Amino acid sequence: MAKKESTFINMVSTLLVVTLVSAGLLGSAYALTKEPIRLAELKKKNEAIGVVVPGFDNEPSREVEKLFVDGDTLYLYTARKGDEVLGTAVETFTNKGFGGNFKLMVGFDPEGSIIDIAVISHAETPGLGNKMERNKSDFHVQFIGKNPASFNLAVKKDRGDVDAITASTITSRAYCDAVNRAYGALVESGKLKVTSE
């Protein structure tokens, strides 16, 4: 009987040691990769800001406003050249994509017109929904220069002004949803320049 107890204790001890070593290695790997991952994500965001509001000389990621909307956070980055505000880049999202959540960076000028849009992340179908990416199609071009106050950000199938990506109506609707959310955040933030006629 003592031999069985000894074997059981040895097995439990060995399992405990293996678990502790594994946990320590995983923790170390996380600690080593956490900062490089954060810096890579920051670089990607800064590059997206540079695409959607070009020409700034400040560091927009240091001048960020957060808005909690629809269960997630939107980030508004003010892009300046000297003292002049060139526009606002809004990191937005949608949960309505065919592949689930995706994120966009939408640049607005001070009057609220769209400067440009960049895709940050998505899980849409290759060859279909991923055509929202600028290197896959010109889908984003139809938004440039449009002001959501007068441009109906919905696909034509839904009586909007947007030509959907062929065979990807769900992705196109989700894209419009994300841009609408960005514009709503811009309005709510008070960053729009009010012009009087």
Task: Please explain how this structure is put together.
The chain has 197 residues and is an alpha+beta fold. It has one domain. It has helices spanning 2-52, 169-189, and strands at residues 64-69, 72-81, 84-97, 100-108, 114-121. It has a five-stranded antiparallel sheet with strand order 1-2-3-4-5. It is elongated, with a radius of gyration of 23 Å. The relative contact order is 0.12. The model has no long low-confidence stretch (mean pLDDT 88).
Domain module tally? 1
The fraction of residues in strands falls at 15-25%
Parts with pLDDT < 50 across at least 5 consecutive residues: none
Strand and helix order: HEEEEEH
In whole angstroms, the N-to-C terminal distance is 95 Å
Quickly count the helices: 2
- The neighbouring-strand order within the major sheet is 1-2-3-4-5
Taken from the alpha-carbon principal axes, the silhouette is elongated
The amount of helix comes to: 25-40%
Number of E strands: 5
Quaternary structure classification: single chain
Strand-pairing-aware structural class:
alpha+beta
Rg calc: 23 Å
Provide mean pLDDT, rounded: 88
Layout of helices and strands, plus pairs?
Layout: H1 2-52, E1 64-69, E2 72-81, E3 84-97, E4 100-108, E5 114-121, H2 169-189
Antiparallel strand pairs: 1-2, 2-3, 3-4, 4-5
